[in-house]
Amino acid sequence: MNVFSAAALLAPHLDALVEFRREVHAHPETARREIVTTRRIIDRLERAGLKPIPLPGTGVLCDLGDSGRMVALRGDIDALPLPDDTGLPYASRIPGVSHACGHDVHTAALLGAGLVLGELAEAGQLPGRVRLIFQPAEEAMPGGALAVLAAGALDDVEAAFALHCDPHTDVGKVGSRVGAITAATDYVTVRLSGDGGHTSRPHLTQDVVFALGQVIVGVPAVLSRRIDARAGAALVWGTVGAGSAANAIPTQGELSGTFRCLDNDVWETAGVVVTDAVREIVGPYRVRAEVEYERGVPPTVNDGDAVEVLEAAVRDELGRDAIELTPQSLGGEDFAWILEKVPGAMARLGTRTPGGRSYDLHRPDFVADERAIGLGARILAATALRDLTVHSRTAPS
Question: Per the confidence metrics, is the pTM higher than 0.90?
Answer without folding.
Answer: yes
